[in-house]
Amino acid sequence: MTTTTRWGIVGPGRIAENVVRDFVHVPGAEVTAVGSRALDRAQGFAQRHGIGTAHGSYADLVADPDVDVLYLATPHPQHHAVALEAIAAGKHLLVEKSFTATVAGAQEVVDAARAAGVFVMEAMWTRFQPAVVRLRELVADGAVGEVRSVQADLGVAREFDPEDRLFAHELGGGALLDLGVYVVSFAQMLLGDPDTVTATGSTFPTGVDAEASLLLGYAAGRSAALMTSLRNALPGQARVYGTEGWVDVLPRFHHPATIVLHRAGAEPETITLPPDGTGYSHEVAEVHAGVLAGRTESAVMPLADTLAVMRVLEEAAGQLGVQFAEAPPTP
């Protein structure tokens, strides 16, 4: 029985540079190829990381018979077309967040994955951080009673540059798809799918969202108050409120090492559980194990959750007057 998964990297950008370094912490997961629209970029990435094959197009990487799993790290609107091509070729996928640029695009990818029986997962590394895994265990054990509310924020100060991907509408720029996905996914993980979404914020001259504050409403008065921004830095902290206490997830909450449990009537309990490597290893390990076991999705980051998060992001963006589209296939 095989114990190895062979990976290809689609898009050798900044996030891929970080993720590929963590493969050393996942025995049996091997990066064998990389693909870019520019062959020299693929070759440079391959040389830096000791990867055997460099492709000058995404299509060639998708067709590579020596690749089992693709890590898709292109800009958000490009995920849809490449994912569909990869699924048609029988490849398993780890797709960077945000999963796609639109709910319709995400649904199409999910439907194709389920029909083909391949493993597909959104690369929401937060859910696999050891400290967050412990948080979920505590909540499930009733450590803070019934969860009533979640607060989370994530923002950075970026000078507006219309040439930068973060501010380009055609590349899915803006705060929501790049940073807001973390706060929304965190709330969805703990509270489920919201009944209402209310958003306020502002936009950049390029038409993408600059900042957003979201209030998610749930049955019986439960709520999530979330903030994201590219205009100004935010603490990057999260707090989970229950009927019998709360948990602080210390900055930055989307890849924390430490949480603090506050039980009613007890002294705070600090729990520190650092990740392996820089933290990307845990999501890679989830895909690796899932593929070897013949599963088609993750129980920790299921496709239904990805769709729920995309619906919130699209609704919030729409309330700010922002709409995105999936990019056409690229060579």
TrEMBL record:
Top-rank taxon:
Bacteria
Transmembrane helix found in the keyword field: no
Q: Which family does it belong to?
A: Belongs to the Gfo/Idh/MocA family.
Where do the coiled-coil regions begin and end?
Answer: none
Q: Which keywords fit this entry according to its UniProt record?
A: Oxidoreductase
The record ties this protein, via Pfam families, to:
GFO_IDH_MocA (PF01408), GFO_IDH_MocA_C3 (PF22725)
- Please give the Gene Ontology molecular function terms for this protein: nucleotide binding; oxidoreductase activity
Indicate what this protein is called per its UniProt record: Predicted dehydrogenase
Occurrences of domain Gfo/Idh/MocA-like oxidoreductase N-terminal (ranges): 6-122
Source organism (scientific name) = Klenkia taihuensis
- Answer yes or no on keyword Cell inner membrane: no
Domain GFO/IDH/MocA-like oxidoreductase, by residue range, is 133-247
